[in-house]
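Re: [help] complex structure
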Amino acid sequence: SQQGEEDPQALSIQEGENATMNCSYKTSINNLQWYRQNSGRGLVHLILIRSNEREKHSGRLRVTLDTSKKSSSLLITASRAADTASYFCATLQEGTSYGKLTFGQGTILTVHP
Amino acid sequence: EAGVTQFPSHSVIEKGQTVTLRCDPISGHDNLYWYRRVMGKEIKFLLHFVKESKQDESGMPNNRFLAERTGGTYSTLKVQPAELEDSGVYFCASSQVRSPLHFGNGTRLTVT
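Output below.
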């Protein structure tokens, strides 16, 4: 079974709209992180939310975490064409070494100008 | 600061050949990780170095894969002999203690 399954697999929106991506996981976690990957590039860390936090903001990003449902969402407000990328959630399971992340398959976001 | 650099960016080899991937972490980052994304699958952890020591190599697929980190600086990942299922993108990442990971652009390995 997969840890960190994401939904939707692909999302296409117009510039200015909001984009919401969801992530579910299966085990107890220490934290959950979101990464962005532009085509052909490495993953870039966006935001980290700890298991005892419920919501976190960073610029146009808003992340929520519901540990009872083992789910998280990433909201990008007022999207821009430059936000076009793949977005991955990654969990750090309890009891594992820091940096040993479990990734989902990602959501491909396309923002049309 | 310079980011994590990986070399080569692409490699195409035949089944049975050997390939060595290199990763130069961000200077001062003691933690170095290797991850892999096989086509259609999720990004998976391979191993973790702290300086020159292997902290966790539980994700290494089999003994055809050998990772080293000379003097706690750059790292290499050797695949010998390569098989078709080894094709994918190999990512290296580095970090300071308990900090988010910084990823390189990856090496796309194609085994034919």
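The interface with chain B takes residues 2, 4, 33, 35, 40-45, 48, 88, 90, 97-106 of chain A (CB under 8 Å).
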